[in-house]
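Page 37, top half.
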Amino acid sequence: MKRRIISILFVIVLAIIAIGPPAAMRAQGPLPPISENAINATTAAALNVAPNVLPSISRPAKNVSALQDQLAQMSAAAKSGEAAKLNSFSASQFVDVANKQVRVILEMDANPDSHVASAPTIETVELSGGKTAQIQHAPAIAIRPALAQAIAATGATYETAFQNLVQVLAPFTSLEALAKISGVRYVRLPYPAEPSALPPQNPKGLAPMVGSQTSEGVNLTKTDTWHNVGYKGGGVALAVFDFGFTGWAARQATGDLPAGAILKDFSASYSFSPDTPGNVHGTACAEITFDMAPEATHYLYAFSTDVEFGNAVADFIGVSGSKKVVSMSVGWVNAGPYDGTGPINAIVNNAQANGIFWANSAGNNQKSHWSGTSVQYSTSDSIAFGAGSGQGIGPSVGNYWNISNETPLRFYLEWNDWNAARNGNQNNIDYDLYLLRWNGTSWVVVAWAEGDQCGSAIPPTEAVSHTAAGGIYALVIRRFTDIGCPNNFGHWMQLHTFLNAHGDNFFWYTNPCNSVLIPGDGDSAVTVGAAFWNEDSSGPLYGLEPFSGLGPRNGSGGTDPGTTVNKPDVVAPDGTSGVTYGASDGTNYVNNGLGFWGTSAAAPHVAGMAAVLWSGRPAFTLAQVRSNIQAYALDKGDGGGCGGGTNLNNRYGNGRINFGSPSAETLAKFNAKYAPKKNATRVRWTTGSELQSEGFNVYRAGAKAKKWTRLNDKMIPAQFIGQPHGAKYSFVDHQVKAGRVYAYKLELVLSDGSSQWSEVVQVQAR
């Protein structure tokens, strides 16, 4: 593509707003931690920041249009030996600057014939106390031999594949060659994703280990009342999907994870043994699912990319059993239009279609997100933010976060020009994203994303990744136009970062609504917001966290959602106690309380509740489990400015999860049917639980159901007296006459001497 010269006018309104410095902030997931003084509020006046015309910059020529712009920049920097430029990409968890390589995904036009080449391998590891654990490593996935050979010829290493996606570990110098392989449509980084947790608030990092802990959410949601009558998730497979489970063996030793948890390794970057450090998030989530559903069979799935995620979910679909639940506290950006469609949502849709209940965190991006319609600034190509052309990175207009040295910065832009397949653009609408730093006298472009949506069918997204020098930063979004790709503005956009400013706005201009992450935007996920457990009775917000992702999701294709009401589905407790992140001190997040914070803590409470509900109501369908969880939820507030009333809204969904009182005896089915060959009526019934049951009596009456006669001489004993299990029963009534109508009912005799009765059913003997 031809080079183009860009002059950027960056105008910032200097509104002097005095605020106190926020508490320390940390990045999440595999990113390096940000120092305790990572950000401090600094006014524009104090820094003498003035409106400035940026120097003209030249867009590098793109020799390979199938290469994502960030990868094209890495390739060019590697060729020219620009070490500083390469180091700036270290903010991405998929980039290994030290070894000069990057993990990438090849999107293929043709199916790469990916298929399972071998069974999973089983590794037995020794634990303390003479115990052992088994790790199931993902099966090898083979691809077409010619494609595997072509990848190897570039110097890259093939790792795995899912559908038409091929995962490769590539030297920087092999990127262009990969993009030129026959059948490769696009080479990109894995879709950006992060755990939906907030940093533990302890100056030394993690909160101290405090021994065995139980989440306050168990009692708050009345799950304990179901435990007390024997419903603890038995018979349910419960999977936690995450980037890793550091400390899993230690948590098993303290009884905070189940000893029989099945460990599933699908990740190229995390290892259960030796345990890769720095991935405690999944362990903390599994602690909560175990607290909530201690008798569920737990599966811990480790993955790191969208390809590995697809294979991991396919594996869980293949696990035997009809009652399966997933907890995932991970959210993606730039992986679709935020309208419930796209490749990540397709994977979750397939899970639901196979009977899996899926609880997913809403994300923590309420104040780290902007969405709105692109409007031209003055007569320039820049998008207007307020009265200027820049999105300041700070808590309010005129105030900046003074970001410390070596802070990893990542920003993500998406707009509504998706094709039907959700893997490229539809109308060649092209925007570019720029990160600027104030050097003391002027604004300087330090990172940029200039994907060529104008000349190719790549997705309508951009991302910048930069390891920062200390100082203040801002973002500029610009349109690009050319022959065949007009752009008259007016497009609905989403701007995200995974960084969090301790309850303050990360950007000057934010939109708290419309901030739910992928796949929380999808219909197949039960999307979970967060509400602090110890403020559950405190209006007007009832603990709703200032970071919790809010609805609505985007309209179809990524358009303005308007006044629709659809997400989240429920909210659940956070700030709870655990071993990984420490015990709660009852103080909220903004006031530096301790505990496990974020929608990451909320989602596993919902998954655990689903497992408990299903164990107590084994005849329930997936749809019934979901509808009951939403119906049990307590109304906690309206939608505020995001839409919806008190019953259903875009802040709390259906409300805060809560169990109704469990019933000790459940009659799942009761029916009667005439058998003409035997001239008899067969009465059948099924129980869901027999915790307080003694037995059953069958009664018959005439058509008017007035005079009832007990048919059995002795009470029919229950098969599982005192157990949370059900059974099937039948009784044959031979004392019927052809041509008559009979009524039947069943008496359930309970251990306290009381009775429950079934509905009356009528039978025509003919």
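Page 37, bottom half:
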Amino acid sequence: MESSSSSRGVPESTIEAVERTLANLKLVETHLLEFLSLANPDVLDEMPPLQRAQSLFMFAKATTTIFALRLRTTGIHPDEHLLKTELDRVTERLSLYQDKLEQVINISKEPSRRSTTLNYQAATRFIEHSLPELTPEQRKSMRDISRGEGSKIKYMERSTHKKRKYDTSEKQSVKAAAQEFLEKAARELFGGNTDGFKGPLIKVDSSSEDEPVE
């Protein structure tokens, strides 16, 4: 083998490198044919958005790499080709897209976190002190809620958690969460009958206050 390679003037190391390259090219061809099957539009449509973005990015990167390899195997350096500027632009954009894709992948792996949390017990105590006209029964109900003993607090927690589950695209501010809690608490305490009040609280007609007492 050495005599034949020496007679041709080709070093043994070069022949071994060529053989390794040919073997690697066969592996690339095998994997590339399998990978190209994913380029079917019907297959891409069935993929989740993140997986589809990864596949399209890999297609673009593989195309650029194979084109550069083709130039080198034909004796042309990519930096000396007429499309060098275009290749540099594509490479720069692919690097940018890769960074963005990695950020999205990292975010998708993070555990879901609540955008806003509200201390219902503290909010209930705030409502109690803000409404001095509450009856003793209503004050007791508010204290039960603030201690987490009432059924109302459980209902409001379930309702808020359910709303947060289907509203993950927007981050609810603390002010909005507090306003939502106040409205729910008002409906629990006052809403129900035709006058808009329920329980010991009774709506007083303001006109009756002007009438003289007989």
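Margin note: The radius of gyration is 36 Å.
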